[in-house]
Fold:
Amino acid sequence: MTKPVVLIPGAIYEHVVKRVEMDFELMRIDGADLNLLDDAQKAKIKGIASAIHLPNEFIQGLPSLEIIAHFGVGYDVIDAKFAGEQNVMVCNTPDVLSEEVADTTIGLLLNTLRELPKAEAYLRQGDWVEKGNYRLTPLTLRKRVVGIYGLGRIGLEIAKRLEGFGVDIHYHTRSEKPGVSYKYHPTLLEMVTAVDTLISIVPGTAATTKSVNADILKALGANGVFINVGRGSVADEDALISALENNTIAAAGLDVFENEPDPRKDFLSLDNASLLPHVASASVHTRNAMGDLQVDNLVNWFEGKSPISPVPETAHIKVK
Ligand code: A2R
Structure:
C-alpha cells in the first residue's frame, strides 16, 4: 500500500522528521512557497506537518490537502477558519506542553522579581569577591497579587503553581470559569486595577492583539510587573517599552515578542526587563511529546480515525 505524502515546509524539530519518515512518504521544501513545488508534487500532498506560517494561497494551492498538523498549541500562524472552509483539518499540540510552560513562567517571574540571571552574572564576572554581596532586590513575590490573563489549560497550571507561593490569584477571560476559586474579572482593565502582577497566557488573536496597552500598563501601576508567556502580539510593544523606560511599571519578564527571533533592540537595553528567547516549552521531553502528538494526529487521520487534537475552527470536519 502506498503511504500518504506528508509535506514538511520549512524548519521543524528533527524528532518530527523522523516520525513522519516512519509512517509517511516525506516531502520537504524550504518554506511555504508554491513556487517550490511542481504540479505533480502539489497534487500528491495529502498532509502537512509544520511549525511555520502557512499563507492561505499555499493551503488553497494544494488540491489533495486533507490535514495540517501544526507543532505548538498556538496556531495563529495558520488561518484555521479559512482552512476549514477549504475542508482542510487543522490540529495543534495542546496539553502536553502546559506543565512545562507553567514551570517556565514561574522561573521567569522569579527571574524578573529577584534578578536571578543578573545575580548569577555578578558572581561569574567576579563581582561578588570584588564588590561584595549582590544588591537586595527591590522586588519580591511576597505579598503580590497576581492576575492571570487567560485561564485555559496553561493558565490553570500556572495558577496551581502560584497557589504554592501563597499569593492572591485573580483572572480575566471572556467567560467565568466554573469551579474555580480565583477572583474573576470580566475586563482586563478591572483585573489590572486590582492586581500588581499580570501574567499573559492568552492566544494571539484579533481580539487580544495589543490588548496589553498603555492604559492597562498604567493601571497595573508603578509596582507592577508584567510577564508574557503567551504571544508577543498581545502586548503593545511601544507602550511596554515606554512603560519600562519611564517606570510606569516596575519590571517585565518576556518569553515572547512581536518580532521573533529578532525582538526590538529597545528591550535589550532595558535594565528592568528579564528576557528569554521563546523557550517556555523548550525541553527535549516536552518537544518530543509535542512532536509525537503532531504526528499522531496525522497517523489517526490517515487511518480513518478522528484526530486527537483538532482546533475548534475545524473540529466539525469529518475524516475522509
Ligand atoms: O476567553 P475564554 O473564556 O475563552 O478563555 C480563554 C482565554 N481567552 C481570552 N481571554 C480574554 N480575552 C480574550 N479575547 C481571550 N481569548 C481567549 O485564553 C482561555 O482561558 C485562554 C486560552 O486557553 P486555552 O485555549 O486552553 O489555551 P492554552 O493551551 O492555555 O494556550 C494558551 C496560549 C496559546 O494559544 C499560545 O499562544 C501560548 O499560550 O502558548
User: Anything to note?
Assistant: The longest helix spans residues 284-302. The mean pLDDT is 98. The pocket of A2R is lined by residues 73-74, 94, 98, 150-155, 172-175, 201-205, 207-208, 230-231 (CB under 6 Å).
